[in-house]
Every structure is written in structure tokens, then in C-alpha cells.
Amino acid sequence: MKLLFWIPFVFGALFFSGCTDPTSTSTVFDPVKQAAEDELTLQTWFAEKGLKDSVIKTSSGLYYRITKSVPDSILAGPDSMVVNPAKKRISLGKKVFVRYEGRLLTDSLFDSNLNSATAFSFYPGNDITIKAWEEGLLKFSNLEEGYLYCPSGLAYRNVNQNKIPANSCLKFFIRVTGLE
């Protein structure tokens, strides 16, 4: 009787194990290999665009570049002691308002809210955006502009996302428009 109990399970296992496509060439995603490929892609792109000396790399592999910075003080000159209230750092859990434009390294636009009526808002640290944004926006202050250059591992990895092919390095223009 016990043997009859196991027969459906054995046949099921044999059936489902044979359902794989023997001609399939897909491989298991290797994040270490992909990170190395992304690093080479980004370094080549930075060299082509003359940006090698103007980007900063974080320990995760994200690159960023601040292009418009808010002065530390309201008064001109290095002796100013009046702190600019607008220069607040973005921090975890504090709402940030962002205008942005997302492009592939080929310059193909995949997302933008630069012409939208409202800025995109979120709370860094709540993991509702890609990892590159969660980390990268913490490098910005209120009213600053710049770029995030993302390896695929900090963006959408090996998954196609609408206009973004799998394993794509991305660049984002970021304009921080406000903090709460």
C-alpha cells in the first residue's frame, strides 16, 4: 500500500524534470561577472565622454557627479558665517522631491519628469526605488543637481523593464527640488 502512495509523486517528478528545454542557452545570472562587465562599460563610457576625472565612485560601484551645488552660505566669500538654510543634506527617512531624467548610456530616454507638473517624491531608506537612487540621493543636498551612473546591479539587474534592456547601465540627471 505504501508503494502505491508514492507512485504519483515519482511520475510527477519524472514528468516535471523533463520539461526543461534542452536547447536553451540561458545561464544563471552571475552578479560578480556582471559587475565586472558593468565597470568596464562605465569606465569606457566615462573615457569617451571625458568624465573620468569628474565622477566619484562609491563602495557599491555607483558613480555620481554634482554639477550644480548650493553654496554653504548666503553671503559671498569664504569668511561668511551666515548658513544657507536651503543647503540641507538628504537623509534616510526624510521626504525628498526630485526632478529627473533617466537614460541608457546610448542616450536613449526611458523616463523623465522634468516637464511634469509635480516632482517625484519618496523617502530614502524605504526601498521603493532602485538601489542606485536609495544610495545616490544621499550624496545630494537640497537644490543641487547632478548625475547618477548606475551599474545594472544597482538598477534592474538582469530583468527587462519597458525601455530598459536587461543588464543595462543607466544614467540619471537629478535635480533635488525640495526636502521635508
Walk me through this protein's architecture:
There is one protein chain. This protein is α+β, with helices and mostly antiparallel strands and 180 residues long. The chain has one domain: Chitinase A, domain 3 (Roll). The chain is 23% helix and 22% strand. The protein is built from three helices and seven strands; from the N terminus they run ααβββββαββ. It has helices spanning 2-17, 31-49, 131-136; strands spanning 56-57, 63-68, 96-104, 109-112, 120-122, 145-150, 170-179. Strands 1, 2, 3, 4, 5, 6 and 7 form a seven-stranded antiparallel beta sheet that branches. It is globular and about 55 Å long. Mean pLDDT is 85; it is low at 3-25.
Oligomer state equals: single chain
* Spans of at least 5 consecutive residues with low confidence: 3-25
The largest sheet is:
7 strands, antiparallel
Beta-strand fraction estimate: 15-25%
Describe this protein with a few key phrases.
180 residues; alpha+beta; Chitinase A, domain 3; 7-stranded antiparallel β-sheet; 23% helix; globular; disordered N terminus
Write the layout of secondary structure elements.
Blueprint: H1 2-17, H2 31-49, E1 56-57, E2 63-68, E3 96-104, E4 109-112, E5 120-122, H3 131-136, E6 145-150, E7 170-179
Antiparallel strand pairs: 1-2, 2-6, 3-4, 3-5, 3-7, 6-7
